[in-house]
Structures are given as C-alpha cells and as structure tokens.
Amino acid sequence: MNGWRGASPTARLLLVAVLLTGLTTFMFLPLLAIELTAQGIPAGRTGFLVGLLAFSSQAFSLLSGLLVDRLGPRRVMAAGFLLRIAGYVLLGLGGAGRPAPLVAGIVAVGVGGSMLGLSTKTLLVSQEGSDPRTMLALRSTFVNIGVVVGPALGALVYPLGFRYILAACVLSHLVLGIGLVSGRTAAAVPGRTALMPWVGFLTLPTSRGRPDTTFS
Q1: How many other C-beta atoms can be found within 10 angstroms of the C-beta atom of residue 175?
Q2: Residue 26 pLDDT class (50, 70, 90 cuts)
C-alpha cells in the first residue's frame, strides 16, 4: 500500500471512484441479461442488447482519446458521469413494452463508461510526483475488487428488485461525479481542500508531503 500512502488526495479520490463505480457496475452487468429475460424480452433481443452495451463501450473508445485530447480529461469525465447516470435512469424506465429507453440507456451506459475509463486513467497518470505505473497498478487492483465483489453484492440486492441496483449505480456516480468535478472549484478557495468534506480522510498528509494537483 505504499503507492496509496504516497498518492495525492486527488489520486486517492480517483481510485475510490474507480472502486465504487466498479462495484456498482459489476452489481449491474451480470444481472442485466437475467432482468431483461424476466421482463419478457426474447432471448435473441436480450443478447443483442447485452452485446450493444459492450459494443458501445469498445467502439466509442476510438473517440474517447480524441475527446480527452481536445476537451481535457476533467470535462470528459464529467460527461461520462452524466451519460452513465442518464443511462441507468433510462434503463429503469424501459421494459419489454418500451424498447426505446432500453436501447438509449444501454448505449449511454456503454459510451459513458468508455469516457470515464480513459479520463480517470489519464488523470491518475498525470498526478504530480506519482509513478504512473504505480497508479495504473492500483487502478487495476481496485477494478478487480469491483469485478469480484460487485456480482456478490448484486446477488444480495437483486431479490429486492433490479431497480435498487440501478439506484445504487445512479447514487454512486452522482456523488462521486459531484465530488470529483467540483474539486477544482473548491481548490480555488483559500483554506479549503480540493475534495468534498465527506472524503476528508483522503486529505491526510501524504508520506512525501507534496501538494495535491487539480484536474486539468
């Protein structure tokens, strides 16, 4: 955990965002096909929708790099959070008799995930004084925790209803999006941390004593 202790507060918050969004995403993904089938959607159409989610994420990654280069990672990250929140809401509104919200929601979740993945990775490796390889290794570790733990959490919540899982996805992305995107504004006010008060524990002095770097 030396990499965590040596990371800037912003890097720590980014890593927490990777962990929490990973947990809720993998609560949602393994159960998507089950939920669509339970809603009465034919197996072929269910397979198309699940494939569309993967296609939207992978195909848009070709443009994500260009957007990060042109607009900056902070703006792309904000757009990614907004798209994912909108996508989860649309999925909650969709169903067997309402295919349009389902398709739009799946595309929004996929594209938003692509934008979030590259923008957070770019911000992590650009942190002042941090070893990019260490940041990427920590990110992979936190993603893998989400891959392992997320489905188990999803299995526990699913009996309550799939919309509870979607609500957890919306809440996590909303809170983290506000905390990360508003960090730059808070950093401009003297005497205030660049992070939200609810993550104050992340601003404990780092082992190297270097200042935090805000989003570009």
Answers
A1: 16
A2: very high
Rounded to whole angstroms, how far apart are CA atoms 193 and 180?
A: 12
Confidence at residue 202, expressed as pLDDT on a 0 to 100 scale = 38
DSSP-derived letter for residue 211 is: P
Each residue's pLDDT tens digit, 94-151: 776 788 889 999 999 999 999 999 999 999 888 776 778 888 888 999 999 999 999 9
- The two structure tokens encoding residue 42: 């034919």
Please name which of 198, 183, 174, 196 lies closest in space to residue 24, comparing C-alpha atoms.
Answer: 174
Residue 205, number of CB atoms within 10 A of its CB:
9
Q: Quote the CA–CA distance of 138 and 165 in Å, as a whole number.
A: 26
